[in-house]
Design goal:
Number of strands: 21
Strand content: 15-25%
CATH architecture of the largest domain: 3-Layer(aba) Sandwich
Distance between the termini: 69 Å
Oligomer: single chain
Number of domains: 2
Largest sheet: 7 strands, mixed
CATH class of the largest domain: Alpha Beta
Number of helices: 17
Structural class: alpha/beta
Helix content: 40-55%
Protein backbone atom coordinates (compact mmCIF):
# COMPACT_ATOMS: atom_id res chain seq x y z
CA UNK A 1 0.00 0.00 0.00
CA UNK A 2 1.34 3.43 -0.89
CA UNK A 3 1.31 6.60 1.16
CA UNK A 4 -1.69 7.91 -0.78
CA UNK A 5 -3.69 4.82 0.16
CA UNK A 6 -2.62 4.99 3.81
CA UNK A 7 -4.00 8.49 4.18
CA UNK A 8 -7.53 7.10 3.93
CA UNK A 9 -7.33 4.51 6.71
CA UNK A 10 -9.49 4.74 9.84
CA UNK A 11 -8.63 3.81 13.43
CA UNK A 12 -9.78 0.18 13.10
CA UNK A 13 -7.61 -0.33 10.02
CA UNK A 14 -4.54 1.10 11.77
CA UNK A 15 -5.21 -1.01 14.86
CA UNK A 16 -5.32 -4.13 12.69
CA UNK A 17 -2.08 -3.13 10.98
CA UNK A 18 -0.49 -2.55 14.38
CA UNK A 19 -1.41 -6.07 15.52
CA UNK A 20 0.15 -7.49 12.37
CA UNK A 21 3.28 -5.35 12.76
CA UNK A 22 3.81 -6.44 16.36
CA UNK A 23 3.67 -10.07 15.26
CA UNK A 24 6.65 -9.68 12.94
CA UNK A 25 8.81 -7.03 14.54
CA UNK A 26 12.49 -7.17 13.58
CA UNK A 27 14.62 -5.87 16.43
CA UNK A 28 18.12 -7.20 15.75
CA UNK A 29 21.03 -5.22 14.32
CA UNK A 30 21.42 -4.78 10.57
CA UNK A 31 25.07 -5.30 9.61
CA UNK A 32 26.60 -6.14 6.24
CA UNK A 33 23.24 -6.67 4.59
CA UNK A 34 21.57 -8.94 7.14
CA UNK A 35 19.96 -8.96 10.56
CA UNK A 36 22.19 -10.27 13.35
CA UNK A 37 22.05 -10.53 17.12
CA UNK A 38 24.28 -8.30 19.21
CA UNK A 39 27.71 -9.83 19.76
CA UNK A 40 27.24 -9.97 23.51
CA UNK A 41 23.58 -10.96 23.28
CA UNK A 42 22.36 -7.93 25.19
CA UNK A 43 18.82 -6.61 24.81
CA UNK A 44 16.79 -3.65 25.98
CA UNK A 45 13.07 -3.08 26.09
CA UNK A 46 11.17 -0.78 23.77
CA UNK A 47 8.02 0.60 25.40
CA UNK A 48 4.88 1.84 23.66
CA UNK A 49 4.59 5.32 25.24
CA UNK A 50 0.84 5.49 24.59
CA UNK A 51 0.12 2.48 26.79
CA UNK A 52 3.23 1.94 28.90
CA UNK A 53 3.29 -1.67 27.68
CA UNK A 54 6.41 -3.41 26.33
CA UNK A 55 6.62 -3.38 22.54
CA UNK A 56 9.77 -5.32 21.74
CA UNK A 57 13.04 -6.67 23.08
CA UNK A 58 15.68 -4.90 20.99
CA UNK A 59 19.27 -6.05 20.46
CA UNK A 60 21.66 -3.81 22.37
CA UNK A 61 24.78 -3.19 20.35
CA UNK A 62 28.11 -2.47 21.99
CA UNK A 63 31.56 -1.43 20.79
CA UNK A 64 32.05 -4.91 19.32
CA UNK A 65 29.00 -4.49 17.09
CA UNK A 66 30.09 -1.00 16.08
CA UNK A 67 33.45 -2.49 15.07
CA UNK A 68 31.69 -5.07 12.91
CA UNK A 69 29.40 -2.51 11.30
CA UNK A 70 32.20 -0.04 10.59
CA UNK A 71 34.34 -2.85 9.12
CA UNK A 72 31.45 -3.83 6.82
CA UNK A 73 30.94 -0.21 5.78
CA UNK A 74 34.66 0.24 5.19
CA UNK A 75 34.82 -2.86 3.00
CA UNK A 76 31.83 -1.69 0.99
CA UNK A 77 33.39 1.73 0.55
CA UNK A 78 36.84 0.51 -0.45
CA UNK A 79 35.45 -2.05 -2.85
CA UNK A 80 33.80 0.74 -4.80
CA UNK A 81 30.50 -1.15 -4.71
CA UNK A 82 28.83 2.16 -3.82
CA UNK A 83 31.44 4.93 -3.92
CA UNK A 84 32.54 4.15 -7.48
CA UNK A 85 29.17 3.43 -9.00
CA UNK A 86 28.40 5.67 -11.99
CA UNK A 87 26.43 8.66 -10.67
CA UNK A 88 23.30 7.76 -12.62
CA UNK A 89 23.35 4.23 -11.21
CA UNK A 90 23.62 5.56 -7.66
CA UNK A 91 20.74 7.92 -8.43
CA UNK A 92 18.60 5.05 -9.71
CA UNK A 93 19.11 3.09 -6.49
CA UNK A 94 18.17 6.04 -4.31
CA UNK A 95 15.09 6.72 -6.44
CA UNK A 96 14.11 3.07 -5.99
CA UNK A 97 14.79 3.42 -2.26
CA UNK A 98 12.34 6.34 -2.09
CA UNK A 99 9.76 4.35 -4.05
CA UNK A 100 10.06 1.43 -1.63
CA UNK A 101 9.51 3.76 1.33
CA UNK A 102 6.31 4.85 -0.40
CA UNK A 103 5.27 1.26 -1.11
CA UNK A 104 5.80 0.26 2.53
CA UNK A 105 4.32 3.45 4.03
CA UNK A 106 1.76 1.56 6.13
CA UNK A 107 4.34 -0.57 7.87
CA UNK A 108 6.76 2.28 8.46
CA UNK A 109 4.01 4.54 9.79
CA UNK A 110 2.79 1.93 12.26
CA UNK A 111 6.31 1.25 13.52
CA UNK A 112 6.89 4.97 14.02
CA UNK A 113 3.65 5.41 15.96
CA UNK A 114 4.03 2.32 18.15
CA UNK A 115 7.66 3.04 18.99
CA UNK A 116 7.57 6.80 19.54
CA UNK A 117 3.91 7.69 20.12
CA UNK A 118 3.58 10.13 17.24
CA UNK A 119 -0.03 10.44 15.98
CA UNK A 120 -0.47 8.29 12.89
CA UNK A 121 -2.04 11.19 10.99
CA UNK A 122 1.14 13.24 11.50
CA UNK A 123 3.36 10.40 10.27
CA UNK A 124 1.28 9.86 7.15
CA UNK A 125 0.67 13.53 6.32
CA UNK A 126 4.03 14.97 7.36
CA UNK A 127 6.91 12.69 8.25
CA UNK A 128 6.77 10.06 5.50
CA UNK A 129 6.20 12.51 2.63
CA UNK A 130 9.25 14.43 3.89
CA UNK A 131 11.31 11.22 4.09
CA UNK A 132 10.48 10.38 0.48
CA UNK A 133 11.12 13.95 -0.66
CA UNK A 134 14.50 14.02 1.10
CA UNK A 135 15.74 10.80 -0.51
CA UNK A 136 14.61 11.95 -3.96
CA UNK A 137 16.15 15.40 -3.56
CA UNK A 138 19.49 13.96 -2.48
CA UNK A 139 19.40 11.55 -5.43
CA UNK A 140 18.90 14.50 -7.75
CA UNK A 141 22.01 16.16 -6.28
CA UNK A 142 24.36 13.31 -7.19
CA UNK A 143 25.30 14.43 -10.70
CA UNK A 144 25.40 18.08 -9.58
CA UNK A 145 28.47 17.56 -7.38
CA UNK A 146 31.27 19.29 -9.24
CA UNK A 147 34.97 19.93 -8.94
CA UNK A 148 36.88 22.72 -10.66
CA UNK A 149 39.72 23.47 -13.04
CA UNK A 150 41.44 26.66 -11.97
CA UNK A 151 43.13 29.33 -14.05
CA UNK A 152 46.85 28.63 -13.75
CA UNK A 153 50.08 29.29 -15.61
CA UNK A 154 50.53 27.94 -19.11
CA UNK A 155 51.67 24.31 -19.09
CA UNK A 156 49.85 23.41 -15.87
CA UNK A 157 46.42 21.93 -15.30
CA UNK A 158 45.10 22.27 -11.77
CA UNK A 159 42.03 20.21 -10.88
CA UNK A 160 40.08 20.31 -7.63
CA UNK A 161 38.31 16.99 -7.22
CA UNK A 162 35.47 16.37 -4.78
CA UNK A 163 35.36 12.86 -3.31
CA UNK A 164 33.36 11.03 -0.60
CA UNK A 165 34.80 10.86 2.91
CA UNK A 166 34.45 7.12 3.57
CA UNK A 167 32.47 5.70 6.47
CA UNK A 168 29.97 8.11 8.02
CA UNK A 169 28.61 7.54 11.50
CA UNK A 170 25.08 8.87 12.04
CA UNK A 171 23.42 9.23 15.44
CA UNK A 172 19.76 10.15 15.10
CA UNK A 173 17.10 11.24 17.63
CA UNK A 174 13.75 9.77 18.58
CA UNK A 175 11.43 12.73 17.92
CA UNK A 176 11.40 12.14 14.14
CA UNK A 177 12.97 8.67 13.95
CA UNK A 178 12.79 8.19 10.18
CA UNK A 179 13.06 11.76 8.99
CA UNK A 180 16.05 12.81 11.10
CA UNK A 181 17.85 9.59 10.17
CA UNK A 182 17.19 10.21 6.48
CA UNK A 183 18.43 13.81 6.76
CA UNK A 184 21.81 12.19 7.55
CA UNK A 185 21.70 8.94 5.59
CA UNK A 186 20.47 10.28 2.24
CA UNK A 187 23.08 13.03 1.66
CA UNK A 188 25.88 10.80 2.95
CA UNK A 189 24.88 8.01 0.56
CA UNK A 190 24.31 10.45 -2.31
CA UNK A 191 27.89 11.66 -1.93
CA UNK A 192 29.18 8.08 -2.21
CA UNK A 193 29.85 7.30 1.45
CA UNK A 194 28.77 4.23 3.37
CA UNK A 195 26.88 4.63 6.65
CA UNK A 196 26.58 3.20 10.14
CA UNK A 197 23.46 4.50 11.88
CA UNK A 198 22.94 4.42 15.64
CA UNK A 199 19.26 5.29 16.06
CA UNK A 200 17.87 6.56 19.34
CA UNK A 201 17.26 3.66 21.71
CA UNK A 202 13.76 5.01 22.41
CA UNK A 203 12.60 4.44 18.82
CA UNK A 204 14.86 2.28 16.61
CA UNK A 205 12.39 -0.05 14.89
CA UNK A 206 11.48 1.95 11.78
CA UNK A 207 15.16 2.61 11.01
CA UNK A 208 15.87 -1.12 10.92
CA UNK A 209 13.22 -1.56 8.26
CA UNK A 210 14.66 1.42 6.38
CA UNK A 211 18.05 -0.29 6.08
CA UNK A 212 16.41 -3.42 4.73
CA UNK A 213 14.60 -1.35 2.09
CA UNK A 214 17.91 0.18 0.98
CA UNK A 215 19.20 -3.33 0.29
CA UNK A 216 16.00 -4.19 -1.60
CA UNK A 217 16.55 -1.08 -3.73
CA UNK A 218 19.93 -2.41 -4.87
CA UNK A 219 22.25 -0.93 -2.27
CA UNK A 220 25.34 -3.01 -1.50
CA UNK A 221 25.83 -5.09 1.63
CA UNK A 222 27.60 -2.90 4.16
CA UNK A 223 26.42 0.28 2.48
CA UNK A 224 23.90 1.10 5.18
CA UNK A 225 24.17 -0.54 8.60
CA UNK A 226 22.09 -0.03 11.75
CA UNK A 227 23.36 -0.71 15.27
CA UNK A 228 20.77 -0.27 18.02
CA UNK A 229 22.04 0.44 21.48
CA UNK A 230 22.43 2.95 24.25
CA UNK A 231 23.95 6.28 23.39
CA UNK A 232 26.59 6.08 26.09
CA UNK A 233 27.71 2.69 24.76
CA UNK A 234 27.08 2.26 21.02
CA UNK A 235 26.88 5.97 20.22
CA UNK A 236 30.10 6.70 22.08
CA UNK A 237 31.89 3.81 20.34
CA UNK A 238 30.79 5.12 16.94
CA UNK A 239 31.99 8.65 17.70
CA UNK A 240 35.33 7.32 18.95
CA UNK A 241 35.94 4.92 16.07
CA UNK A 242 39.13 5.62 14.15
CA UNK A 243 37.72 4.31 10.86
CA UNK A 244 34.76 6.69 10.88
CA UNK A 245 35.52 9.77 8.79
CA UNK A 246 32.60 11.87 9.98
CA UNK A 247 29.94 11.64 12.66
CA UNK A 248 26.63 13.45 12.30
CA UNK A 249 24.57 13.87 15.46
CA UNK A 250 21.15 15.30 16.26
CA UNK A 251 20.22 15.52 19.92
CA UNK A 252 20.94 17.42 23.08
CA UNK A 253 23.61 20.09 23.36
CA UNK A 254 25.11 18.22 26.30
CA UNK A 255 25.71 15.08 24.22
CA UNK A 256 26.82 17.16 21.23
CA UNK A 257 29.69 18.48 23.33
CA UNK A 258 30.68 14.92 24.19
CA UNK A 259 30.70 14.00 20.50
CA UNK A 260 33.18 16.82 19.86
CA UNK A 261 35.40 15.45 22.62
CA UNK A 262 35.25 11.92 21.23
CA UNK A 263 36.26 13.17 17.79
CA UNK A 264 39.28 14.91 19.30
CA UNK A 265 40.20 11.88 21.39
CA UNK A 266 40.20 9.61 18.33
CA UNK A 267 41.02 10.55 14.73
CA UNK A 268 39.89 14.19 14.55
CA UNK A 269 36.92 13.08 12.47
CA UNK A 270 34.55 15.70 11.12
CA UNK A 271 31.58 16.43 13.36
CA UNK A 272 28.19 17.78 12.30
CA UNK A 273 25.88 18.76 15.15
CA UNK A 274 22.22 19.75 15.25
CA UNK A 275 21.47 20.26 18.91
CA UNK A 276 19.00 21.95 21.19
CA UNK A 277 16.91 25.04 20.66
CA UNK A 278 14.83 27.62 22.48
CA UNK A 279 13.43 29.37 19.46
CA UNK A 280 11.74 32.76 19.80
CA UNK A 281 8.73 33.89 17.82
CA UNK A 282 8.66 37.69 17.83
CA UNK A 283 5.19 39.19 17.35
CA UNK A 284 5.35 42.93 16.66
CA UNK A 285 2.30 45.10 17.30
CA UNK A 286 1.91 45.81 13.59
CA UNK A 287 1.79 42.16 12.53
CA UNK A 288 -0.36 41.66 9.43
CA UNK A 289 -2.84 39.04 10.70
CA UNK A 290 -3.36 38.38 14.40
CA UNK A 291 -5.39 35.23 13.79
CA UNK A 292 -2.71 33.65 11.61
CA UNK A 293 -0.05 34.72 14.11
CA UNK A 294 -1.80 33.12 17.09
CA UNK A 295 -2.36 29.92 15.13
CA UNK A 296 1.34 29.79 14.22
CA UNK A 297 2.25 30.42 17.86
CA UNK A 298 0.39 27.45 19.32
CA UNK A 299 1.18 25.18 16.40
CA UNK A 300 4.84 26.11 16.73
CA UNK A 301 5.03 24.75 20.26
CA UNK A 302 2.28 22.11 20.52
CA UNK A 303 2.95 20.25 17.23
CA UNK A 304 4.67 16.89 17.67
CA UNK A 305 3.96 17.20 21.41
CA UNK A 306 6.52 20.00 21.60
CA UNK A 307 9.26 17.42 20.96
CA UNK A 308 10.92 19.54 18.28
CA UNK A 309 14.39 21.10 18.41
CA UNK A 310 13.21 24.27 16.69
CA UNK A 311 9.86 24.50 18.53
CA UNK A 312 8.75 28.11 18.97
CA UNK A 313 8.73 27.75 22.75
CA UNK A 314 9.48 31.41 23.58
CA UNK A 315 6.61 33.57 22.37
CA UNK A 316 7.61 37.25 22.47
CA UNK A 317 4.63 39.60 22.13
CA UNK A 318 4.77 43.41 21.95
CA UNK A 319 2.88 45.00 24.84
CA UNK A 320 0.40 46.85 22.62
CA UNK A 321 -1.20 43.55 21.50
CA UNK A 322 -0.20 41.40 24.50
CA UNK A 323 -3.66 41.14 26.13
CA UNK A 324 -5.53 40.39 22.92
CA UNK A 325 -2.88 37.90 21.81
CA UNK A 326 -3.14 35.97 25.09
CA UNK A 327 -6.93 36.01 24.98
CA UNK A 328 -6.99 34.50 21.50
CA UNK A 329 -4.26 32.00 22.32
CA UNK A 330 -6.25 30.72 25.29
CA UNK A 331 -9.50 30.61 23.32
CA UNK A 332 -8.05 28.77 20.32
CA UNK A 333 -4.95 26.96 21.57
CA UNK A 334 -6.18 25.21 24.70
CA UNK A 335 -8.20 22.59 22.81
CA UNK A 336 -6.49 22.69 19.41
CA UNK A 337 -4.41 19.61 20.24
CA UNK A 338 -6.33 16.75 21.80
CA UNK A 339 -4.39 13.86 23.38
CA UNK A 340 -5.59 10.40 22.47
CA UNK A 341 -4.80 7.07 20.88
CA UNK A 342 -1.97 7.73 18.40
CA UNK A 343 -3.40 5.08 16.03
CA UNK A 344 -6.62 7.09 15.70
CA UNK A 345 -6.33 9.54 12.76
CA UNK A 346 -8.47 12.00 14.78
CA UNK A 347 -5.78 12.26 17.49
CA UNK A 348 -3.72 15.43 17.26
CA UNK A 349 -1.42 14.92 20.26
CA UNK A 350 0.29 11.73 21.32
CA UNK A 351 2.26 10.91 24.47
CA UNK A 352 5.77 12.03 25.22
CA UNK A 353 8.33 9.43 24.23
CA UNK A 354 8.93 7.92 27.69
CA UNK A 355 7.67 8.07 31.25
CA UNK A 356 10.95 9.74 32.18
CA UNK A 357 10.37 12.47 29.59
CA UNK A 358 6.86 13.01 30.95
CA UNK A 359 8.12 13.39 34.52
CA UNK A 360 10.88 15.75 33.42
CA UNK A 361 8.42 18.03 31.61
CA UNK A 362 5.97 17.97 34.52
CA UNK A 363 8.84 18.91 36.81
CA UNK A 364 9.74 21.90 34.65
CA UNK A 365 6.09 22.98 34.63
CA UNK A 366 6.12 22.93 38.42
CA UNK A 367 9.32 24.98 38.37
CA UNK A 368 7.58 27.53 36.16
CA UNK A 369 4.79 27.85 38.71
CA UNK A 370 7.22 28.26 41.60
CA UNK A 371 9.26 30.92 39.78
CA UNK A 372 6.20 33.07 39.26
CA UNK A 373 5.05 32.43 35.68
CA UNK A 374 1.26 32.57 35.26
CA UNK A 375 -0.26 29.23 34.27
CA UNK A 376 -3.18 29.89 31.91
CA UNK A 377 -4.06 26.31 30.95
CA UNK A 378 -2.72 22.77 31.06
CA UNK A 379 0.09 22.01 33.45
CA UNK A 380 -0.63 18.37 34.12
CA UNK A 381 -1.68 15.01 32.70
CA UNK A 382 -4.89 14.87 30.64
CA UNK A 383 -7.83 12.83 31.85
CA UNK A 384 -8.03 9.25 30.63
CA UNK A 385 -4.27 9.20 29.98
CA UNK A 386 -4.07 5.76 31.56
CA UNK A 387 -0.52 4.45 31.67
CA UNK A 388 0.55 6.58 28.71
CA UNK A 389 3.16 9.32 29.15
CA UNK A 390 0.90 12.20 28.12
CA UNK A 391 1.23 15.88 29.09
CA UNK A 392 -1.52 18.40 28.44
CA UNK A 393 -0.80 21.40 26.20
CA UNK A 394 0.37 24.09 28.61
CA UNK A 395 0.53 27.88 28.46
CA UNK A 396 2.49 30.16 30.76
CA UNK A 397 2.26 33.95 30.44
CA UNK A 398 4.18 36.82 32.04
CA UNK A 399 7.39 34.83 31.72
CA UNK A 400 10.75 36.53 32.34
CA UNK A 401 14.04 35.73 30.61
CA UNK A 402 15.63 34.60 33.87
CA UNK A 403 13.03 31.89 34.51
CA UNK A 404 13.97 28.27 33.97
CA UNK A 405 11.14 27.69 31.48
CA UNK A 406 12.53 30.56 29.37
CA UNK A 407 16.08 29.24 29.39
CA UNK A 408 15.96 25.44 29.43
CA UNK A 409 14.86 23.34 26.47
CA UNK A 410 11.74 21.61 27.77
CA UNK A 411 11.00 19.34 24.79
CA UNK A 412 7.33 19.16 25.62
CA UNK A 413 4.11 21.09 24.89
CA UNK A 414 4.89 24.06 27.12
CA UNK A 415 4.56 27.61 25.75
CA UNK A 416 6.17 30.58 27.50
CA UNK A 417 4.78 34.00 26.53
CA UNK A 418 7.00 37.01 27.24
CA UNK A 419 6.05 40.68 26.82
CA UNK A 420 8.41 43.26 25.31
CA UNK A 421 8.41 46.94 24.43
CA UNK A 422 9.97 47.82 21.07
CA UNK A 423 12.40 46.21 18.67
CA UNK A 424 15.51 46.67 20.83
CA UNK A 425 14.02 44.76 23.75
CA UNK A 426 12.71 42.06 21.40
CA UNK A 427 16.21 41.50 20.04
CA UNK A 428 17.71 41.43 23.52
CA UNK A 429 15.23 38.83 24.78
CA UNK A 430 15.42 36.74 21.59
CA UNK A 431 19.22 36.51 21.86
CA UNK A 432 19.28 35.92 25.63
CA UNK A 433 19.90 32.19 25.24
CA UNK A 434 22.74 29.76 24.60
CA UNK A 435 20.77 28.45 21.61
CA UNK A 436 20.40 29.76 18.07
CA UNK A 437 18.52 27.24 15.97
CA UNK A 438 15.51 29.11 14.61
CA UNK A 439 13.23 32.11 15.06
CA UNK A 440 10.02 33.63 13.76
CA UNK A 441 9.37 37.31 13.01
CA UNK A 442 5.88 38.76 12.60
CA UNK A 443 5.50 42.33 11.28
CA UNK A 444 4.14 44.18 8.27
CA UNK A 445 7.13 46.58 8.28
CA UNK A 446 9.86 45.38 5.91
CA UNK A 447 12.53 47.46 7.65
CA UNK A 448 11.64 45.98 11.03
CA UNK A 449 11.54 42.49 9.57
CA UNK A 450 15.00 42.71 8.08
CA UNK A 451 16.48 44.33 11.15
CA UNK A 452 15.22 41.40 13.21
CA UNK A 453 16.47 38.91 10.60
CA UNK A 454 19.91 40.50 10.71
CA UNK A 455 20.17 40.80 14.49
CA UNK A 456 18.51 37.64 15.81
CA UNK A 457 21.18 35.00 16.34
CA UNK A 458 19.68 31.96 14.64
CA UNK A 459 20.41 29.73 11.67
CA UNK A 460 16.84 29.85 10.32
CA UNK A 461 14.44 32.81 10.49
CA UNK A 462 10.85 32.70 9.23
CA UNK A 463 9.00 35.92 8.43
CA UNK A 464 5.21 36.01 8.90
CA UNK A 465 5.15 32.21 9.07
CA UNK A 466 6.82 29.50 11.13
CA UNK A 467 8.45 26.14 10.42
CA UNK A 468 7.95 26.30 6.67
CA UNK A 469 10.40 25.61 3.85
CA UNK A 470 11.46 23.12 1.22
CA UNK A 471 14.53 21.08 0.38
CA UNK A 472 16.47 24.13 -0.82
CA UNK A 473 16.43 25.56 2.72
CA UNK A 474 19.51 24.87 4.86
CA UNK A 475 18.39 23.80 8.34
CA UNK A 476 20.77 24.22 11.25
CA UNK A 477 21.78 26.47 14.09
CA UNK A 478 24.17 28.96 15.57
CA UNK A 479 25.80 29.03 19.00
CA UNK A 480 25.13 25.89 21.07
CA UNK A 481 22.44 24.71 18.68
CA UNK A 482 25.21 23.21 16.56
CA UNK A 483 27.02 23.64 13.25
CA UNK A 484 25.34 21.31 10.73
CA UNK A 485 23.21 22.26 7.74
CA UNK A 486 20.67 19.60 6.91
CA UNK A 487 18.42 19.28 3.86
CA UNK A 488 19.73 21.39 0.90
CA UNK A 489 22.55 20.77 -1.57
CA UNK A 490 25.07 22.04 0.98
CA UNK A 491 24.40 18.99 3.13
CA UNK A 492 25.50 16.66 0.32
CA UNK A 493 28.69 18.64 -0.23
CA UNK A 494 29.42 18.47 3.51
CA UNK A 495 29.86 14.70 3.15
CA UNK A 496 32.67 15.17 0.62
CA UNK A 497 36.27 16.39 0.72
CA UNK A 498 38.42 18.07 -1.87
CA UNK A 499 41.60 16.80 -3.46
CA UNK A 500 43.91 19.12 -5.37
CA UNK A 501 45.67 17.64 -8.43
CA UNK A 502 48.46 19.75 -9.95
CA UNK A 503 49.57 18.44 -13.35
CA UNK A 504 52.57 19.89 -15.10
CA UNK A 505 52.39 19.12 -18.81
CA UNK A 506 55.38 18.14 -20.88
CA UNK A 507 57.24 21.14 -22.22
CA UNK A 508 56.30 21.94 -25.78
CA UNK A 509 59.17 21.98 -28.35
Amino acid sequence: MTLATAQGHDRDHWQALAVAARARLESRLFIDGRFVDAARGGRFQSINPATGAPLAEVSAGTAEDIDLAVAAARRAFRSGAWSKLPPRRRMDILYRFAALVDEHAEQLAVLETLDMGKPIADVVAGDLPAVIETIRFMAECIDKIEGAVTNTESGVVHMILREPLGVVGAISPWNYPLLMAVWKIAPALAAGNTVVLKPAEQAPLSCLRLAELFMEAGGPAGGFNVVNGLGEVAGKALALHNDVAKVSFTGSTEVGKLILQYAGQSNMKRVALECGGKSPQVFMGDLPDLGAAVTAAYRGIFSNMGEVCNAGSRILVERGIYGEFIERFVAEGEHAYVPGDPLDPATTMGPLVTREAQQRVLGLIETGRKEGAKLRFGGGVPRNAGAGSFVSPTLFTDVRSDMTIARQEIFGPVAAVMPFAGVDEAIRIANDTIYGLAAGVWTRDVNTAFRLVREIEAGVVWINCFDEGDMTQPFGGWKQSGNARDKCFESVVSYTQTKSAWLRLAAQP
